[in-house]
Amino acid sequence: MKAFFEGIDYLFVNILFAPLDFLRSLELGSWFAANAINWIFMIICAAAMVYWILQLKKHEENGEENQDTTAHSFFK
Known about the structure:
This protein is an all-alpha fold. Helices cover 72% and strands 0% of the residues. It has four helices and no strands. It has helices at 2-16, 18-27, 31-34, 36-61. It is elongated. The mean pLDDT is 88.
C-alpha cells in the first residue's frame, strides 16, 4: 500500500508539477514570462466577453431578444 502512495507522489511531484516548477524558476528572471499563461487566459476571456456582448447587441437590434418575464416558466 505504501508503494501505491509513493507512486502517486512521484507522478504528481516529478511529472505533473514539472511545468509549474519551471515557471517558478523562470519568475526569478522574468516576471512577465512566468505569467505568460495568465496573460493568455486574460486575453482569451476578454475576447470572449467582447464577442458575447456583440452577439447580445446584435440580437437586441434584430428584435429577437425576449425580455418578457413570462419567457421562462419559472418566472410565472
